[in-house]
Amino acid sequence: MSEMLSGAEILCRALVDAGVEVIFGYPGGAIMPFYHALPDHPRLRHILVRHEQAAAHAADGYARASGRVGVCVATSGPGATNLVTGLAAAHMDNSPVVAITGQVSRPMIGRDAFQETDIIGITLPITKKNYLVQDVTELADVVADAMAVAVEGRPGPVLIDVPKDVQNQKIEWQGATKRSRASQAPRAGARGQSLTPGASPGPLEDGVRAAARLINGAERPLIMVGHGVILAQAYAEVRALAEKTGIPVITTLLGISAFPDGHPLHLGMPGMHGEVHVNRAIQHADVIIGIGLRFDDRVTGNTASFAPQARIVHIDLDRAEIGKNVPVAVGIVGDARDITRRLLAAVEPRRCERWLEHIRGFVRTRAESYRGGMSPEAILASIYEASHGDCTIVTDVGQHQMWVAKLYPYQHPNSHITSGGLGAMGFAVPAAMGVHLARPSGTVWAISGDGGFQMNMAEMATMVQEGLPVKMAVFNNGYLGMVRQWQQFFHEKRYSCTPIWSPDYVKLAEAYGIPGYRVKDASELTETVGRANTQPGPALVEFMIEQEANVFPMIPPGGSLSEPIETAPAGATGD
Amino acid sequence: MDDALVTLNRAFGVLRTRNVPIEGLALHPSGTAGESRLTFVLKADAATADRVAQQFHKMIGVRSVMVLANQDSTTEATR
Fold first, then answer.
1. How confident is the model at residue A190 (pLDDT cuts 50, 70, 90)?
2. Which residue, of A40, A150, A409, A516, is most buried by count of CB atoms within 10 Å of its CB?
3. Residue A108's CATH number
4. What is the ipTM of this complex?
């Protein structure tokens, strides 16, 4: 049976057909037909954010926590451009997000119409694919295609730009057609290949055998795991590989929680703020098995001096990553779970006790003092305790992000979500809203600094209006702390524009009708954090921390992993 | 690649984003409906050429990628 439907109605039906349940969005002129149709589709829960950037971050958080596509909606012009930071963050961290934007009507495109912007052009480099829907007959297929492209292979954001007249255009609707796969013709070298330098791509088994030979013969091997392990849910396989071979495991910022924190083989996070023993292990390793990471510059420091003795086995879904940042001995293109399973079968059981002993010799203990005992360790321990170690932590960007990455004892896979690649301040609060909607029965803590929190704190209103019980932690040191730290270390302690004023967060919370707390002394941590954690709705806790505390150790930007800064430079005060 | 303006734009972007200068380019119908052939002339070492080829490989809308060294491309042109 056919019926006459508008583009807007088709859009809603296509989203329902694709299994979408939550949409983060903000209405406006060019997307009004969609919002007119939306109430007829109660399966689509709409979350009204306070800024479109938050809609994109929330969709990203939803996607990372659920493994499903996160959807955000905005109008043309400023609505669409406000999504850009969130889409760039999703692109850098491979999160499947579909953004739907209204566009001015087709006859107005290219005439600098009111709220017209070329969002297709603007988002080209930060999307896997984007579509300007030219005719209503394409719409259902475009939505189906976009949803599939976002999750296929290496996930990422996709944008659909729908002119207002296309949303209003009516056609006789016969139901969704089969998804057009014309643009998805199989491409050469997509996956399942061995890439040995200087040789043409060979069968997968060759790469697995070569990798196993390297691992069996290694004296100082390391496993480095990244976000790919979380995306492929290869936790059990990676753990089994580590336990069969006794090889210690390093987790990158986005690989955190892919391997249990307290496991005897877990070393920690590498790179710019990695612990000394982790980076030293890399510099002394003779074989590194990298699974689902891209050897980002924050991990490698200066690539010329990165892991000078190591032959690298690189396993990645994206062929373009193999050899992009560091030279590899064996490259294997494929899904982290599948390849790790094959590797597990191919390696011989072994132990690495002498090597582990060697690494333990690199471990440094630091004694830092914090005002009121408010150390990052103590604060994070109180959150861990209050949530019984069972919550999702979403962090923002800066010092607190590094403290959480290094100190929070993650036990559950994919329980740490952060803006890693883009490093977008303002991410935590809206992304945590998305995490809550993906995991409604779990607890979510959004941890921010006083800088990042103020970027998107308006989303507290969204939490109240939509009933999203996000717990917010604000590390308040009165500075844009990480930039201040760089100024202290590399800019003669000239604190240019980094002192930052904050409102009274307790009163601010009160203004939003939610409980707010301030903790100045470590003795109050357990009780206050516990109370915030058990509140039925959102809650905010401000932690007054040492103003000039630093994140140690630190590899200077572009420096070698062998040369960490472990104390503040001479002449600099504080910490 | 797909014969679509947005695919063409994305292909330029692969080079622009990586700061690889374009010396010449040509767009032709490929002979297959809905597909075009885009040829870039780049002054780049083999490693850079390979790196951008990998990026083209994974670009949605690209059907196949060929890297021709200078000599091969001359042969191609005079054939």
1. very low
2. A150
3. 3.40.50.970
4. 0.83
pLDDT of residue A192: 67
B57 closest CB neighbour out of A129, A185, A320 = A320
Q: What's the gap in Å between the CA of A125 and the closest CA on chain B?
A: 7
Q: Which residue of B has its CA nearest to A154?
A: B58
Rounded to the nearest angstrom, the minimum Cα separation between B65 and chain A is: 8
Query: Per-residue pLDDT for A182 more than 50?
Result: no
Q: A261 and A199 in one domain? A: yes
Asked whether residue A564 is assigned to any structural domain, the reply reads no
pTM of the model: 0.94
Which residues have CB under 8 Å from A101's CB, separation 6+? A30, A31, A73, A74, A75, A76, A79, A80, A83, A119, A159, A160, A161, A162
For B44, other C-beta atoms within 10 Å of its C-beta total: 18
Containing structural domain, residue A77: 3-178
Q: Using beta carbons and an 8 Å cutoff, which residues of B are at the interface with A?
A: 2, 6, 9-10, 13, 17, 34, 51, 54-55, 57-58, 60-65
Interface mutation vs chain A, best among B9, B50, B55, B60, most A CBs within 10 Å: B60
The architecture of the domain spanning B5-78 is: 2-Layer Sandwich (3.30)
Determine what percent of chain A is predicted with pLDDT higher than 90: 91
Shortest Cα distance, chain B CAs vs residue A132, angstroms: 9
In a domain, residue A184? The reply is: no
The dihedral formed by the CA atoms of A337, A128, A250 and A290, expressed in degrees to the nearest 10 = 60
Q: Tell me whether residue A482 is one of the annotated catalytic residues.
A: yes
Measure the CA–CA gap between A385 and A526, rounded to whole angstroms. Answer: 8
Task: With a cut of 50, say whether residue A185 has pLDDT above it.
Answer: no
Task: Give yes or no: A115 in active site.
Answer: yes
- The pLDDT of residue A538 is above 60: yes
The two tokens of residue A5 are 């439907």
- Say whether pLDDT at A57 is over 50: yes
Query: Do A275 and A400 have their domain in common?
Result: no
Q: What spatial distance separates the first Cα and last Cα of chain B, rounded to whole Å? A: 23
Per the annotation, the verdict on A114 as an active-site residue is: yes
Contact B6 A182 (CB under 8 A): no
pLDDT at A336: 97
